[in-house]
Design goal:
mainly alpha, about 65% helix, elongated, transmembrane helix, EamA/RhaT family transporter, membrane, transmembrane
């Protein structure tokens, strides 16, 4: 079994039908919450919070560089507002992506905003990983729906359906 908890090759013990979609850093451990799921969640929480803190330190150093360059208060204010607005929008977009699949075209058009507002995305990832694997609820709903459809399709009927028609 690979590190991410997803079997490399299906075996006789692997159930037939739809398979759960792996989640980054979690593989398929989110399905049964086994194989170190809680430890992974703690590591993802700590890692995303540490990355957000490091990013804030880097942004602070960049801001101090602008102050040393004496570009003026107006430019400094614009930079702060830009990063704050982009981070807030990135937070909202990332948070929303945990509950529904984002539109690929819209996601491509927001790539620049998400890059600038990466601190907001990291904070959304941190907050979501406190309660579940980020995107777990969406993946669980999709998997259960696919599983129910598969079970309905493969359930064998008993008796002759032509006899019931009368």
């Amino acid at each position: 079994m690979p590190v991410n908890g997803t079997p490399a090759h299906p075996t006789a013990a692997t159930p037939k039908g739809p398979r759960p979609e792996p989640i980054r850093f979690f593989g398929t451990t989110w399905l049964n919450r086994d194989n170190g799921y809680r430890a992974r969640r703690a590591a993802v929480s700590a890692g995303s919070l540490a990355a957000a803190a490091a990013a804030c330190v880097v942004l602070r150093l960049a801001y101090q560089g602008l102050q040393i360059a004496a570009v003026g208060g107006w430019v400094g204010l614009l930079i702060v507002v830009m990063f704050a607005a982009c981070s807030a929008l990135a937070f909202g977009h990332t948070w929303g992506a945990f509950t529904k699949r984002p539109d690929p075209d819209r996601q491509a058009s927001l790539r620049g905003l998400m890059t600038i507002g990466f601190v907001g995305s990291l904070l959304a990832y941190f907050l979501r990983s406190l309660t579940e694997a980020p995107g777990e609820k969406l993946h669980r709903e999709e998997y259960e729906k696919a599983r129910a459809q598969y079970d309905r399709r493969t359930t064998r009927r008993t008796g002759n359906p032509a006899r019931r028609r009368g």
